[in-house]
Amino acid sequence: xxxxxYGLNQTPFSRDIPTQELYPSVIVEEIxxxxxxxxxxQLFVVMTGDCGTGKTTTIRKFKDILDSSKYMFxxxxxxxxxxxxxxxxxxxxxxxxxxxxxxxxxxxxHKEIELMxxxxxxxxxxxxxxxxxxxxxxxxxxxxxxxFKMDAQSPMTLILVGQNELWERFQLQSYxxxxxxxxxxxxxxxxxRAQSGxxxxxxxxxxxxxxxxxxxxxxxxxxxxxxxTARLINKVCTHCLLYGAQNGHKIIDDHMVKRVxxxxxx
Length: 266
Hints:
By secondary structure, this protein is α/β, with parallel strands linked by helices. The protein contains twelve helices and five strands.
């Protein structure tokens, strides 16, 4: 295992790194601040970015920093989500068996939310991941869902998370009624070269070393391959560590990264 070869006590570029150990990029910290603001005021948020830029990871971190005595966090990720399954999924997370008909289930959800607010003092925060895959019917349902008490109050914080095409869809005239209800937009970008280097160092530090295993030239090649996308940085760095350990290289340089990219990743 490369962890032993490099003297690491954790796997540095895995998906299950504790959220408090993640690289605190400016982008993520800004988005977390916006999400906390939205949760406190029960707003409707659309969060978009290219695949692999850290959207779901940021939601995981957001969940961890939310005060569980104040908020009820609910998460749904379903590419074939229908309005009925949406209400069913939320009600199940609230410990309820959903009524069969959509309208009944929606009224049931509103009732449960009012009880949750009134009795337990909890504010609901609902995250729908992979929202770029939602069909028109489900997105239209958002408008009716948020129309609560004659549009005077939002029943929940609703966060739609998806790839950039989700925001592009909202620009269409047919989605104008939903778009006008969006309170906040959060957009993920890519890391630049310096941030990519900081990302690699932070993950190696989490794994148990302050040593520069990757040379500056290697980081240049990692950035060139990944384009500053966190998921691809993880992928190429893991492949390089495996290759380096198998071939007895304590330092990974630019030539090794090129060799790994050409031989294993393209």
